[in-house]
Amino acid sequence: MLQSWEVLVAQTESLSQLMKRRSEDLQEGPINKLTLLIRDKQQLRKNYSEQWSAQRQELIRVTQTALETLKNSYRQAVRNAAQAKRKYQEVIKEREQEKAKERYVKASVKLYDLHNEYVLSVRAAQVYHQQHHRHIQPALLQALQSLQQEMLLILKEILQEYFDISTLLHHEVVHVHREMSTALTAIDPHCEYDSFIQQNRSVGEDPACVDFDLSILDENGRLFTAEIDLNDLTLENIQHKLTALEEELMDLARTLGSKQSTVEQLEQELCSEREGVTKGQRVYQFSKSQALEQSRQQVVLSQGLRAKLEVQRLLLKEKLEQLGSEDPPPALELSSSSTSNDKNQSAFKVDGFISNLSGLFKTKSETPVGQTSQLVEECDHGASAASANAAEANAATCVRMRGGGGVLDQLEVSEESA
């Protein structure tokens, strides 16, 4: 009896030690990994929510907010130009007519610039709208599906590890473990999320995008719907805009190349790590899988931005290629004065205004120092050799070449000399 009791006590102690070891194995293995997986799941949900909100806000900004602001400015510019034109046509006195003409030209320049900017923004919004619904959002869902499948596979491995550890606890749980084994075998990450995108995608056709608002042109019949207006007032602005777009596209191409390199590097690292991975270790690679999907999302977003900028560049480039080497058409039809002297003086002042206006968009480096000095010297010594009207023109040109003031100050110099 005493010997049997000692055996029972010893076996009970052995069973207790066995259960304690298995409990520690469960705590250090599956339970810790499951805690880490839950934290990754929460982070994934947060990242998805932030990315979805950011993409939605960008879509609203490009297709609604920015366009609405630009459209209001455009509509006001149309009214201002129409009002300036009416005042110019109604003015009788020559001095008042010059001031009205100046306001009319300035209002027209602003109108043409806003018109071209609105055309570019509308077209860019249309392209980005398509990119958002056909590429950016599907890519986000694809990334989420891939990560969900990865997490489900990790969960399966954790549960399998739990099953393997707990199987040795008791022979009485064989039936329970058989049921658990059947349930584990039934888990298939790919089948589980097979219809994920189909269930979560937008229903029906893509929502309607923005279009050119025809009501803006009610007071101005010279501008054409959704078409860049290239004339003597907008030529330099369009050229500068095209150059800026090309530089921005080059920077974006470099950024996109860097992001694609990051994606390729992460793909290679994950591929190498997964070749020798053992069961239960995949959970430690999930953060890198999530970083890979985020990098892919950045590539898709950059491609959408590139498509938006590229369509603007093509619109401007096509317009400039249509013009070729010819002079741009005049933007405004200005009436001439009654006498020939008034015609010459009026034409000179308008040409001087346009030249000065063009000078505002040029950097100082575009005019060589030697050429500027020569022109200034000709202006200083030209009064004795030219007629009175030519002397007045040289004086106005000297003011412009020396950069002595703004456009309005230069016009006042021309008027006082007249």
UniProtKB/TrEMBL annotation:
<feature type="region of interest" description="Disordered">
    <location>
        <begin position="322"/>
        <end position="345"/>
    </location>
</feature>
<feature type="coiled-coil region">
    <location>
        <begin position="235"/>
        <end position="269"/>
    </location>
</feature>
<protein>
    <recommendedName>
        <fullName>F-BAR domain-containing protein</fullName>
    </recommendedName>
</protein>
<feature type="coiled-coil region">
    <location>
        <begin position="31"/>
        <end position="101"/>
    </location>
</feature>
<dbReference type="InterPro" id="IPR027267">
    <property type="entry name" value="AH/BAR_dom_sf"/>
</dbReference>
<dbReference type="InterPro" id="IPR031160">
    <property type="entry name" value="F_BAR_dom"/>
</dbReference>
<feature type="domain" description="F-BAR">
    <location>
        <begin position="1"/>
        <end position="192"/>
    </location>
</feature>
<keyword id="KW-0175">Coiled coil</keyword>
